[in-house]
Every structure is written in C-alpha cells, then in structure tokens.
Specification:
Blueprint (H helix, E strand, L loop, with lengths): L4 H14 L4 E6 L16 E5 L6 E5 L3 E8 L2 E8 L3 E6 L5 E3 L4 H8 L9
Antiparallel strand pairs: 1-2, 1-6, 3-4, 4-5, 6-7
Length: 119
C-alpha cells in the first residue's frame, strides 16, 4: 500500500495553485534517487518551485515527483523521490505541510502500533 505523502503533495499542490499561489517543495538532496542540479543546495536541502508555469511535464506519482525546469539558463530533468520531500508550501504565505520522512520513524511505524494498557 503506498504511503499518504504523495497524495498530500498532490492535494496541497492543487490547493495552492487553485488559490493562485506558488507551490514550493523543500527537499533533502542527500536522499537516494534525487536528481537535481548540483551546487544549488544548502546543507543538503533545496527549495524547488513546482508550479505549472515553472515546470514542464510535471508528474507527481506515488513514488516520485518529476519535471523539467530551467536552472541557470539550462533545462534540467528533476526527479525527487516522495520520501525526499520535507515540506510543500505556498511561497507567498508559507501555508503548507511538513513531512517526517525520517527513515527510523518509518521503520518504527512499520513495526506496528505501540500500545500501553492503563488500569
């Protein structure tokens, strides 16, 4: 079963653009599978404008976000695994959502619920 994060990214992206705002992603560039221009990140993080007007062939699948965009005057293919997305937000007002994509937290979640019985 796919995780909920790609569904939330799609929903927030639609909601942000429907309100005539600009959707931005904060990504972890150190995550395996990230294909983004080198040298434009800061401390392993990068902000990407994923608006319809700034991207070509944007696709938000259950695994990755992919599109073409211009960086320093050159068209580049960008691929971001959904588990590399740290947040999606509207550039103009900061409204959005942060994601906890910490691998150890994901592994803990996969182990099942942690219940405590109270008397």
């Amino acid at each position: 079963m796919p995780g909920v994060i790609p569904y939330l990214i799609r929903a927030y992206c639609d909601w942000i653009e429907d309100n005539k705002l600009t959707p931005y992603l904060l990504i972890n560039t150190k995550n395996a599978g990230v294909i983004a221009p080198k040298g434009l990140d800061a401390n392993g993080k990068m902000v990407l404008n994923i608006s319809s007007s700034a991207t070509i062939n944007r696709n938000i699948s259950n695994d990755t976000i992919s599109f073409k965009a211009r960086f320093q005057g050159k068209s580049r293919e960008i691929i971001v695994p959904c588990d590399a997305v740290l947040s999606i937000y509207a550039q103009e007002n900061g409204e959005g959502m942060m994601f906890d994509n910490n691998k150890s937290n994901q592994e803990a979640k996969n182990k099942g619920p942690n219940f405590t019985i109270l008397d």
